[in-house]
Automatic annotation (TrEMBL):
This is Threonylcarbamoyl-AMP synthase. It is found in: Cytoplasm. GO terms for cellular component: cytoplasm. It is an enzyme of class 2 (transferase).
Amino acid sequence: MSVSAASHSGAAPYAPPTVGDAPLPPPTPSSQDFATILEKIDPSTISYASADLEDPLPTISQAHTRQVLDQAAQILRSGQVVGMPTETVYGLASNALDSAAAQRIFRAKNRPQDNPLIVHVSSLKMLRSMLKDNEIPEVYNDLIKTYWPGPLTLLFPRSSLIPNDITCGQATVAVRFPSHPITRALITACNLPLAAPSANSSGKPSPTLASHVMDDLAGKIPMVIDGGQCSFGIESTVVDGLRVPPAILRPGGVTYEQIRLVKGMESVQVYKKHFTDIAMEQAPTTPGMKYRHYSPEAEVVLVEYIRPSTSKQEQENGGATTAQYSVIKNEIKRMREEGKSRFGILRTSFNNSCASTASTSGPLNGISSNSIYCTSDPSVIEFPLGQGSKPEDVARELFRGLRYLDSQKVDCIFVEGISEEDEGLAVMNRIRKAASRTIA
């Protein structure tokens, strides 16, 4: 359980502990069963005074934060794994230079052995130390200056320091410099790069809350750090700048529109939109290319985006809401005839008449009850992802919505699609991977 600690004054830049001042020892169970530790950290207790990325050190203003980071770092240095928050989704971290530690990730998640892991660094100095010839390819200079730290992963030539288990035998390694203060400070505390896929059971919706990690992995891993809800809510954008032309292999928090404005990236292409590569899909260089992902237990049905009518009357009646919602209602009627009885809808477009009438009696599975739309039909639960015209809001709530509706034991989850502009490209990428069926 989390233990609070009073803030202390005179905070100094953080440095990894030496042997003499090491924190509590990590758990050393005789089997793979753990009494998983859950510790909460306030991200605001970690700060960075400088924007320099060469070798930055965090300043920590609370003793409890320092203690939790040191304990987690020692668990990681011992070859075990830790669930940690990032700005994208929660990650399951291990020492990226340790083959046995990487295998603990695969076992805890039940992850396919040919699905590569992304490596996270806390400095450009650390990045160079693990690259072939210790050099950052020039093609990435402007991308790094513009979007690191942040939700952007880049492919680099791999050195012999990186085990095959991390790259699944590929000649490249995917690396990210995260912006979340807890992630950055934990990597610094370990003084090691950390491999970290999403901290969920493989194939399930990615976790955006510590409670999601505990739902999937409690008893399978030693520790989870709770840093609150992830701000982006979907995984990082993956760019391969070693290809000609450069390619976005997975859309994410940094958009196609943003990347193509960066020098050297004007001709960037999006995988599955501008080109396909069957060989790369069978032997992927990055996660998210080969396997179905993000799927809850319930069936997921995507109702494709319907562009709002220019008709003034239809706009006043909700536009896309009316069209997509009508499709969903008709499909629910049809599925009821087949014996299905309980349904969820992830709303991305709605009018003022859809205001919540739910009570405010307390949270439901981490979700405030006044966030859930009541309907005249008690067998239908509507969860608002946000306006489809604000894809960044939809991205933040998507996985949380899928997990919530799944916890309500619905037979089917309908998702209203959104336009694939800006962050909408990443949102629709994730929904399509989760959906077993699409209605166009």
